[in-house]
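Friendly challenge for the regulars: who can give me the structure tokens for this chain first? No prize, just bragging rights.
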Amino acid sequence: MTNKGILLFGGTFDPIHNGHLIIARSAAEKLRVERVVLIPSANPPHKNHSSLTPIRHRLAMTRLAAAGSELFEVSDCELNRPGPSFTLDTVRHFREQNGPNVPLYWLVGGDTIKELACWYKVEQLVDECTIVTAGRPGCDMEVDFGVFRGKLSDEQIARLKQFILETPLVDISATQIRSRVRHDLTISDLTPPAVRDYIIENKLYKT
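First reply, four minutes later:
Bragging rights claimed.
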């Protein structure tokens, strides 16, 4: 039975790679959702903006990665909003679009859940969507949920624990890809072919 919910997956996607797509697809299958929305972050509040590739390139690569897929689609909603790209604002955008009854899930990596306590208005975020954590197969998530005490209720913390999913361990990172491009090494097995071609054609990550 299919869940009519939407899995939202935000990130810098600098660049988007096969690891992102494999993990998102696995989470979507476990949640039984029909749609995964990839959301390139325009102004991530916890990143050094000067080191990011311009958003037009990151958005273009994300669209190329999703092209032709029945599961993936891309949203540019954060590009049209001034100021920091807070997850809560993005979730509220999709809530307005889809109404009150559609389940909204927000996918984070196992490393990100540890930083969640510092996110903007996290106590509201965890009520307005379901935070889904991509965990490593066969490994316990070493998260000190005590950091949420005083910010989240016991019920909210229990919900975070409930939605830690086992997803494939894919050893690919955007940092690794950028380094390989700088050193003229192949990235053919790390990104979709269209993304690889875009990186080469636009001379991204060479300096």
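The first helix runs from residue 18 to 31. Strands lie at 3-11, 33-40, 72-74, 104-109, 130-135, 164-166. Your move, everyone else.
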